[in-house]
Amino acid sequence: MSIARGRFVTFEGGEGAGKTTQIQRAAQWLRESGIEVVLTREPGGTSRGEQLRKILLERNEEPMPQSCELLLMFAARATHLANLIEPAVARGAWVLCDRFTDATYAYQGGGRGIPTGDIDALVQIVHPHRQPDRTVLLDLPVAAGMARAHLRNGTDGPDRFESERVDFFERVRQCYLDRAARDPARFRIVDAGGDVEQVAVAVRASRPAVPARTAT
């Protein structure tokens, strides 16, 4: 008996870039090809991870220190990897994840100014040998993304991250683009400014090759 090796594909981008829509479309055409797909997100993905997500996103009178935010992100990631991502990839599924560690470098590193070395150290603890097989970066100018996010939120209002200033999101976007430039083999930058179908076609073209089946 043989199985195809699973794939771990992450979708990154700033607020309003359309990650949720595009990840769902990608899952649909992969499933139509007979591939098992697991959709997930960060922070979150598991029961414990979703509890940590709530803590991270809720607006609260108590300030959250940057170190607390960073450690909570990696705590959620640790349980997500161990209990969902790694088992799914091991059985041959494609895991499509809405954000992963690149988001931590962009938001906590680029946005908050946390030193890259601090993030690197936590990567070595939580997932030293796991990187995405492909990262799709949905890129959109900050002003356009914020306008989309405002329409999406409606009466719910922004969460703790969406409440940040424009210059925060400009730093986040630049950090994403810098990381993509340094790792072109893994990243594919997709212009998220087009209509949903145009973006979906570009996302599909950026997918990694379906791996050959290997003996077990």
Count of helical segments? 8
Spatial order of the strands in the main sheet? Answer: 3-4-2-5-6
Q: Can you give the helix content as a percent range?
A: 40-55%
Estimate the mean pLDDT confidence: 91
What is the N-to-C succession of helices and strands?
Answer: EEHEHHEHHEHHEHE
What portion of residues belong to β-strands? 15-25%
Shape: globular
User: From the helix content, strand content and strand pairing, which structural class follows?
Assistant: alpha/beta
Largest sheet: 5 strands, parallel
Low-confidence stretches: 212-216
Query: Whole-number radius of gyration?
Result: 17 Å
Characterize the structure shown:
Helices cover 51% and strands 15% of the residues. It is an alpha/beta fold and 216 residues long. The protein has a five-stranded parallel sheet with strand order 3-4-2-5-6, with helices on both faces. It is globular and about 50 Å long. The N and C termini lie close together (6 Å).
Short descriptors:
single chain; 216 residues; alpha/beta; five-stranded parallel beta sheet; two-stranded antiparallel sheet; 8 helices; 15% strand; globular; disordered C terminus
Provide the fold topology:
Elements: E1 2-4, E2 7-12, H1 19-32, E3 37-41, H2 47-57, H3 66-90, E4 94-98, H4 101-111, H5 116-126, E5 134-139, H6 142-153, H7 166-182, E6 187-191, H8 196-205, E7 213-215
Parallel strand pairs: 2-4, 2-5, 3-4, 5-6
Antiparallel strand pairs: 1-7
Helix pairs in contact: 1-8, 2-3, 3-5, 4-7
